[in-house]
Each structure stands twice: as C-alpha cells, then as structure tokens.
Amino acid sequence: MDSTKKNSMIFTRRQFSLGFMLLLFFITGAAAFSQTNTNEQLAIQYYQNKEYDKAVLLFEDLYSKNPTPFIYDYYYNCLLEIKDYKKAEKTISKLIKKQPQNLSLLVDLGSVYVAEESQDNAKKQFETAIKSLTADKDEVILLANAFLIRNQTNYALKAYEQGQKLMKNSYSFNLELAEIYLKKSDFQSAINQYFDYVNSNPDELDRIESKFQDLLLDDADNTKNDLFKSTLLQRIKKEPDIKSYPVLLLWYFIQEKEFVAAIVQAKAIDKRFSEDGGRLVSLARIAASNSFYNEAIDCYDYVITKKGVMSMYYQTSLVEKLQTKYMKITSVSNVNITEIESLEKEYYDLLSVNDETDYGLQLIKNLAHLQAFYLHKPEQATELLQKAIKYRNVSADQIALCKIELGNILLLTGDVWEASLMYSQVEKAFKNDVVGFEAKFKNAKLYYYINEFEFAKAQLDVLKAATAKLIANDAMELALLIGDNLDADSSFTGLKIFARADLLLFQNKEDLALLTLDSINMLGLYHPLFDDVLYKKAQIKIRQGKYEDADSLLVKLVNFYPDDILADDALFLLGQLNDNQFKNPSRAMEYYQKLLTDYPGSIFVVDARKRFRALRGDKIN
Using N-to-C axis directions, what is the helix angle for 434-449 and 453-463, rounded to 10°? Predict the structure, then answer.
C-alpha cells in the first residue's frame, strides 16, 4: 500500500476516534447537567412543600458538587428546619475558612447558635462580624441586610451605627437606619434619621418630603403627624440656621392645607434667608388651585409691596393676582356684576403698561373671557383676541392659549366650525405639548356638543394617555360618559339631550340646562343617564347657591344608584356641602365615613379621611 495513502487512513481513524470521544463526553456531560438540573428542581419542590428531610439530601449532594450561594441558602435553611445544627455549624465553619472576608457567614453561624439557644455563642459571632467591618459602604449594607434576613433587626441597627462611625462624614446611612426603625414602628427614631439626612443633604429635600408623605399618610391616630411636627419645631428652635427645617414645616402646612400658617412660614423664610419672593409666588399658585383665594392674593401682595418693581416676580404677581381675583369673584353663586366691572377696569389699567408682551397676552386672554362669559361682550372680547394672536416677538405658547380662548368664545356664540378651526390650529402646532392636548380636548368636547359622539370618543381615547394628568382624567370621564350611553338606544336620544345641557351650561345658561336635563327623565322608566342627570343638576344647583336642592339630588343619587360610577362622587360632595355650607359636622362625618367604608378604592378616600379625622377632633395643632 502506498505510504501516503496509509498515513491518510491512520489520520482519518484518529480523527474519528477523537470525534467519538468528544461526542461521548458531550453526551455524558449533557446528561449529567440534565440530572443536576432535575435534582435541583425536585429539591426546590420538596422545600416549597416543607418536606425538608427529603430536600436536604438533594441539596447536600448538589452543594458538594457545586457550592453556589443559591444552593447554600437552601441547604442552610433545610439544616435549620430539620434541626441538624452540628452539620450546619460544620458547613459554615468550613466556608468561613475559605471566605474570611464574607462577614455574612458569621451571621449565619450566629443564627445557628440562636436556633440551638446558645445565646452567648450567637452574640460572639454577631459582634465579631460588626467589629470586623471596615470603612466600606457596600460591606456595611451587606452585613446589615444579612442581619435583617436572619431577623436580627437590632444587630442590623448596630451594623449601620458602626458604619456611621467608620465612614464618618462620607456616608451617613440615615435612610437605611430610618427604614429599619420604621420596621420596628419606632417612628420617632425614623423621623430623626430623615431630619439628620436632610440636614447633611439639603439638595435631597424633595426626596425626604416624599418619604414623609408616605409616612404621614397612614396615620389613623395622628401619632406620626404629632411626632413630626413637635420634633421639627424643636429642631428649628435649636438650629435656626438650617434652612431645610423651616422649609419642611412650610411643606407640612401645605400638605395639611393650612394656608394661613403656610403664608406666615413662607414670609418668615423669605425674610430670614433673604430670598427673592419666588417661594411666595409658588405658594400663591398652590393656594389658588385649592380655592384659598384670599391667601393667594396675600402672597402676591407681599411680593408686589415688599420686593418692588425690580423683583423678577413683580409683573408675574400683578398679572396672577388679577387672575386670582377673577377666580374668587366667579367662584361664588350669583356673581356680583359690579365686582366684575371693577375687575375689567383693573385689567385695562394693567394692560396699558403691558401691551405687546407675554404678560399682555395673559391679561388679554383673561379679560376676554371675563367680557364674553360674564359681561356679555363677546364681540369686544373677540376683537381683543384677534388682535392679540397677530402679535410678534411674543411666546408661541401664549398665542396658542389666546387662540384656545378665542375658540371658547366662538363656541359660546354658536360659531362652531370657526371654534373648531382655532382648536385644530393649536393642536397641530403643539402635538406633544400640554397646550396641544388642551386644544385637542376642547375640540373633542365640541364634537360631543354637536352629537358627533363616535369621533369625539376616538379623540378622547387618544387623550386618555396624555402626559397632562388633568386633561387625561377629564378625557377619561367624558369618554366613559359617551361609551356607556352610545348603545342605550339607536338614536342616542338621551346622550344628545345631555350634551345639549352641557353646552348650555358652558354658555352659562343654567336654567335652560336644568330644563333640558329634566327632559331625559321623560324617555322612560329607566335610562343609564339618570344618575348622571342627578349629579349634573346638583352641580348646577351648587353653582346657583341652592345648596338644599343640591343636597336632595345627591341623596337621591346615593340611595337609588349606589352601584353606579358617580356614587362616591356624590357622597364626597354631600360631605363637603355639610362640612362647608351647612356647617353640620356630624352629618358630614357620616357621609365621609360611608365613602371610606363602601368605596375604599375611590379617588376621594384620602381627602375624605383627612376631613373625617379633622371633624372628629383627631388633629392637634
């Protein structure tokens, strides 16, 4: 045989032999891996079924072959469950020799001694672990977590306290300590840790406010609120130069809607720390949004008089003060026309020194609304806005808001398609902006008014995902109203009447709106809009100052339609009527409590609970 051919055959046989061996190796290896995986799954199943005597045998074998932390945890827990403390101690001791830097193992060994009721030995291991800590943030946190996992909360605290000493000023562990104190229901210590943290980290004030908001929300007997306030006042007295403390007290007053106290506090902060008045402007906006108009005006007056014309907030305060006065005057039933006319003059006076500016546009928008909707001067209002939207070198956003207001006035006067055109122009120019979402909502509502329900709902469904929360909520509410009543009857008669009443209400024709709503009750013995009619009529009666009528309508809604979507709204409104208008705290408490009991998922639960506690006398100022 040719030698070359012979060598080729030998090489081929060797290749085959090697390939066969590799194949055999992979097959056996895969089988071994598969078996290991099966045993692990079976062991975990035994463990979950609390068959620890069976699980421990499998985990012991798995651990001897592959001592991973995952298998170790299961093996360790099984040994403790079957009370094989000697084997557990032996296993951990071997591991400690291999990993002396792993302080969590000392916690595991100490926990074995705890299970054996050998407290002295357990204490020795735990304290050794703490003494072995170095100035390493991650090491401290790992050890403290190891103590927490083994239910050694007090030693976790000691680990963090030792960490504070070692780390000195580089890391405080205040937040970690606060979480442990909360687990122990030691609220005083938790509050102190949060205060210490914000003292050292003033830029993290928003984060701590969020922590306190969560803490104080769940406070049935007002204990946490009292601790928070008393501790904070002590700190302010002891350390008056720490700005975060009085700012936190201001935040607390705002949360509790104690705006008179908030204003006093905001002024004190402004003076003490020589601020620019911006804090008072922010507070004014919050107060106005919560209908505390006098308090908001007080804030603006402070900026106007104390900061003067050189303040960056001077013009803003002048303009927003007028807007707040407008909100105050129009928030009551039976609006005083004399006051409206006086306010109109104030707008013109301020507008004379703020012509083609952003401030001027804000003034024009508000003045036009006042003229069209309350002084019956829609032509004058329209002329003002048409001139304003042609201004140059002003904010595009402010032009857009003027266009929306012009659309509102055109809709008021019945020029539907011109109104829609105004809304559409803004929507197109500001597709992903809040002002664009507002224009889209206005346009959708316009189509609802003119009975184009399917188109309106399609637009509203898009808006339900809008980033502007208020618009998204309004869109969802209107979409639900339309969706729930589209199939009520093929002609949509009820929904058409209801939309007509809504449009009349938009046009401030309240009596006509009430008459229109009454006609829905003539459609038959039942209609899905009956509860909506009651609620809408109650809202109109409140607007007219006819609170007794509103009360009767809401009581009827709660009694006849307890399972409908507006039942919790009606209960909260009843609580507010008795709380604020009738000054009947016992009846208000009754409605608030019913809301809390029967509708625990309602969006009004937080406010209802707060008012219920206040009326019961829980709150201590």
Answer: 160
Give the up-direction half-sphere exposure of residue 569: CA atoms within 13 A in the CB hemisphere: 14
Amino acid at 39: N
Instruction: Give residue 34's pLDDT.
Output: 53
pLDDT at 20 over 50: no
* DSSP for 265-315, written as a single string: HHHHHHHHTT--SHHHHHHHHHHHHTT-HHHHHHHHHHIIIII-TTSTTHH
Please state, in angstroms and rounded to a whole number, the distance separating the CA atoms of residues 74 and 405: 67
Q: Mean pLDDT across the stretch 97-114?
A: 96
> What is the distance between the alpha carbons of residues 156 and 148, in angstroms, rounded to a whole number?
6
Q: What is the tens place of the pLDDT at every residue in 460-501?
A: 999 998 878 889 999 999 999 999 888 655 678 999 999 999
The position carrying tokens 């083609």 is 356
CA 616 – CA 621 distance, rounded (Å): 14
pLDDT tens, position by position, 340-389: 999 999 999 999 988 889 999 999 999 999 999 999 999 999 999 999 99
Residue 410 inside a domain? The answer is yes
The answer to whether position 307 is within a domain reads no
CA distance 51 to 516: 71
Alpha carbons 259 and 251: distance in angstroms, whole number: 10
The domain total for the chain is 1
> Residues 287, 295: contact at Cβ < 8 Å?
yes
The pLDDT of residue 232 is: 97
d(CA 104, CA 102): 5
Q: Count Cβ neighbours within 10 Å for each residue of 379-410 and write b for 16 or more, e otherwise.
A: eebbebbeebbebeebeeebbbbbbbbbbbbb
User: Residue 434 CB: number of other CB atoms within 10 A?
Assistant: 14
* Token digits of residue 488: 């009520």
Range of the domain at 391: 332-414
As a whole number of angstroms, the distance between CA 11 and CA 269 comes to: 91
List the structure tokens of 527.
């209609």
Task: Please tell me what DSSP assigns to residue 582.
Answer: S
Cα 97 to chain centroid distance, Å, stands at 50
- Domain for residue 345, yes or no? yes
The residues, ordered by sequence, that sit 6+ positions from 555 with a Cβ below 8 Å of its Cβ are 574
Share of the chain above pLDDT 70, in %: 93
* Cα–Cα distance measured from residue 105 to residue 146, given in angstroms and rounded to the nearest whole number: 9
Residue 9 has pLDDT above 70, yes or no: no
Which secondary-structure segment (H or E) carries 97?
helix 85-98
What pLDDT digit, counting tens, does each position of 169-215 carry?
A: 899 999 999 999 999 999 999 999 999 999 999 999 999 999 999 99
- Evaluate whether residue 361 is within a structural domain: yes
The yes-or-no verdict on residue 39 having pLDDT over 90 is: no
**C-alpha distance across the termini of the chain, in Å:** 111
Structure tokens at 247: 């700012």
Task: Give dist(CA 409, CA 372) in Å, integer.
Answer: 7
Question: How far apart (Å, rounded) are the C-alpha atoms in residues 164 and 172?
Answer: 6
Whether pTM > 0.90 for this model: the answer is no
Instruction: Tell me the C-alpha distance between 245 and 104, whole Å.
Output: 38
pLDDT averaged over every residue in the chain: 91
